[in-house]
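Predict structure. Chain length: 107.
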Amino acid sequence: MKGEGIVNKEDLIKFVADQHRMTQRESHALIGGVLQLIGNALAKGDKVTLVGFGTFQVRERAAREGRNPRTGAVIRIPAKKTPCFVPGKALRERVALAGKKLAGARR
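Prediction complete.
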């Protein structure tokens, strides 16, 4: 991975290809299939749970009032469904531990 603080789909494809002795074309198809499965499940309103990693799910956002920043006029924002990710316990702990190590290295 790049080590620049950003991991994109291409990095993921290369990583999977290297780790599993696949071509990048095969890895691309695999990653694309996984992402399509997650997207299709969310579109149907299903949850996708990856134990130890987290859960992708759809949440309802209630209708609300907002303001037009230019005019200050009140506008109605309709209710909508939005995808969200809830990290699993193992992922939360891993990120917290990495944050503690990073904070210790700054001292």
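Summary: The radius of gyration is 19 Å.
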